[in-house]
Amino acid sequence: MFISQEYRINERIFAKQLRVIDDEGAQLGILTKEEALQKARQLELDLVEVAPQADPPVCRLMNFGKFKYRQKKKTHKHHASQLKELRVRPKIDPHDLQTKTQQARKFLQRKDKVLVNMIFRGRERAHAELGKEMLMKVAQELEDVAKVEKGVTLDGRKMSLLLAPKT
After folding, report:
1. pLDDT in tens, 30-48
2. What separation, in Å, do the N-terminal and C-terminal C-alpha atoms of the chain show?
């Protein structure tokens, strides 16, 4: 909407004649600086020079504080999605698994992806089906906030499940 970052407002405007636009976008015509300032005070708004290069310069009646806030909000960066990892073991205590699931829920609500890794040691690898059941249980508990992006995969002594937030 506006190109420049520096705006002249109210008494800082130099031009004697101004093309004035009200807060709803309707043109009020060409007014003197004093008339335009008086109109702005009546409406409890600021007179902001939006096109100083025009002849006569274009000014708008607006709440300048609100305008600056909206401009700042437009440039604000949003949360970038990250990949969070949770590590579990096949013999994890049910309460510990519940705690890890709650942590995964927080990550998913913040729009982060969650990689759940099941680490097997020694003879635990012989019971990979128990690990798969546990990972599927985690996916079921989180199905209200997550979707399975990549199913259960076994890679050496690590079994993984990738969850993505539902949009």
Report:
1. 888 888 888 888 888 988 8
2. 30
Helices assigned H by DSSP within the chain: 33-42, 64-75, 94-109, 128-141
What is residue 4's predicted lDDT score, i.e. its pLDDT? 43
- Structural domain ending residue among the three candidates 19, 45, 75: 75
Instruction: Please check whether residue 39 lies inside any domain of the structure.
Output: yes
Check: CB of residue 115 under 8 Å from CB of residue 162: yes
**Average predicted confidence (pLDDT) for the chain:** 88
Cut 0.70: pTM above it: no
Strand ranges, E, within 53-121: 58-62, 83-88, 113-119
For residue 12, give the CATH number of its domain: 3.10.20.80
Which residue among 47, 75, 103 closes a domain? Answer: 75
Give the closest residue to 58 by CA, choosing from 17, 3, 6. Answer: 17
Distance of CA 156 to the CA centre of its chain: 38
Question: What local confidence, expressed as pLDDT, does residue 5 receive?
Answer: 58
